Amino acid sequence: MWTWKPHYYSPGLSFYNFPYAFGLLFATGLYAIYQQRGAAFVEDYKSLLASTGEASAVDLAARFGIHIRTKKFWEDSLAIIGKRIERYCEL
Q1: Distance between CA 77 and CA 30 in Å, rounded?
Q2: Is the pTM of this model over 0.85?
C-alpha cells in the first residue's frame, strides 16, 4: 500500500501523516512487547484495545506497563521495521 500512496511522505502534510506514522510505530512497538512477554501480554493487549479512547496514548499505555515516552519503546519498534526492510532487500 505504501508504494502507491505518495502523500504519506509529503513533509507539507504532517498533520495528515502523523497519525499514520504514530499508529504504525505504536502498533509495531506493541508487537515488540508481545515478542518479549509472549502469551502473558495477550490479555493486556486486549484490555488496551478495549480501553482505546479513554485516555491519552501515554496514560493508556502506562496502565499496562508500557512507557511510550522512553526511547527504548520506539527503538524496539523501529528494530522490527528494520528487520522487515532487510528481509525485503534480501528478496
Answers
A1: 8
A2: no
